[in-house]
Design brief:
Helix content: 40-55%
CATH topology of the largest domain: Aminopeptidase
Distance between the termini: 54 Å
CATH architecture of the largest domain: 3-Layer(aba) Sandwich
Radius of gyration: 24 Å
Number of domains: 2
Largest sheet: 8 strands, mixed
CATH superfamily of the largest domain: Zn peptidases
Mean pLDDT: 84
Bound molecules: 2-acetamido-2-deoxy-beta-D-glucopyranose, zinc ion
Structural class: alpha/beta
Order of helices and strands: HHEEEHHEHHEEHHEHHEHHHHH
Number of helices: 15
Number of strands: 8
Oligomer: single chain
Amino acid sequence: MNSDIKYRILIAWCTFVLIIFQQNVRSEKITFQKENYTPDYSFYHNVTSIVSHMTKIVNKYGKYINLKDEFRSKAGHSQLVIRISNFTSEKSGRDKVQILFAFGEHAREFFPVESMFYFLKNLTRGLDELHQGSLSGAYSAWVVNNFDIYIIGMTNPDGRYYLEESGNYCWRGTGSGIDLNRNFDWNFAGPGSSKDSHDEEFRGPRPFSEPETGVFIKLAAKISFDAFLSFHSGIRQIYLPFADTKSKQQNRLPENIDHMLKLARRMSHSSPSRPFQFGLAHRLIDYSADGTSFDYMAGVASVPFSLAVEMWGHENHTGSSCFDEFNPRSEHLQEEVALVHPLYVEMLSYLLTWKTRKSAARNRASSTLIRVRKDNSLNSEHQQDVLYASQTSREISRSASFESQIIYVIFALVVTGCVILGVRHTCQLMRKKRIVSLKSLSLTFSLCKHL
Ligand SMILES: *[C@@H]1O[C@H](CO)[C@@H](O)[C@H](O)[C@H]1NC(C)=O
Ligand SMILES: *[C@@H]1O[C@H](CO)[C@@H](O)[C@H](O)[C@H]1NC(C)=O
Ligand SMILES: *[C@@H]1O[C@H](CO)[C@@H](O)[C@H](O)[C@H]1NC(C)=O
Ligand SMILES: *[C@@H]1O[C@H](CO)[C@@H](O)[C@H](O)[C@H]1NC(C)=O
Ligand SMILES: [Zn+2]
């Protein structure tokens, strides 16, 4: 071979390395990972016991809880949509605080579903004590008489079935790998999602392509919810809209931001010893997320309070396993779900006060319309919250950009090495050894997506 051909082979080879490397940095492939820790199903629910437990509850407490079994997944599994209210009270749904909770959008996040069962256990035990004059009974009566709560108990049953059958505890999407929290019609197909069906943020072919997201539009079309909450795990943070790329660039805020911040602060301090971090999603997180449920509910469905709540996170997770990154160990589960329960209590109490004041104000005068806020200013009392949030995000993005800088420096060295040395055996050596190590390097640096 003459040296010209050798040089061309070299260039082609280096280009190849570049492409492979960039792909590894950019997309997070869904990988099957060896688990260090798997759940004990005598502590955690599995998909079978989720269904049977929920069925038991609705059968026993039909006066206050009923099942809307028509909402089903692509594979036909029930999404366990329930409604909680005192169905015999004179107050109509609209006079109560109407709320939508969504649990289990992401298959590997078991914790929020367990937290929902704790919430239901608290409520139903109180209902059992209604006539004994206990405080628990009074609390449950307060809930059913003042609130009309819709719960999507298992937003993504197919994904959960798949996870349990395959033993792949890293699974996040539906049965066909679609990330439901990228499938909503708000900045759909933006860069904070993926068109690659092997990526864990695969958004699907078009907005609302999945029957699992249909339930959100149908319920929102029928009911003017006062609040929507999407529950997740992986970290302990409370996010306010918006999380999408455009809003991040434009610093867009939802209309009701001042009240939302107040609510988030109350929820954050429901756990006084370990308050949750909270703030605008686009300032708290270092990535953007396009097509999410809570952005849609705030921006399109005009729900006054729309939040994503990350309920639990491992303090110092390392390694490649997933279950223990998103969920506490089996023996700590009961203690952890009890610790987050005050979050619901504070939320309900805040929302009832808000709605009562709002109804009083409406009776006096004008109605409120929720729109995307035009000025990007905040009440001064909230500047602090947002500052707090942006400081956190600056820290996160600093470390993230430091990581990507290292990656690109290494990469530049590899390419320059290839070109300058121009020695074939250097590249041959790299073909075997370096690519493997660079790949694992980029996986190590890939930031975990929980929202
Ligand atoms: C699901 O959990 C129940 C206990 O709640 C257990 O009896 C059953 O065997 C589990 N099913 C599977 C498939 O693990
Ligand atoms: C539900 O409403 C009915 C009718 O107002 C009332 O009699 C009943 O006590 C209420 N249930 C609870 C748990 O408060
Ligand atoms: C449910 O939670 C409320 C609020 O924390 C509490 O007052 C009540 O006693 C709890 N009910 C039961 C049965 O534990
Ligand atoms: C995190 O690490 C510290 C010190 O290494 C340890 O004491 C603590 O238990 C760890 N936290 C968790 C949740 O594992
Ligand atoms: Zn999630």
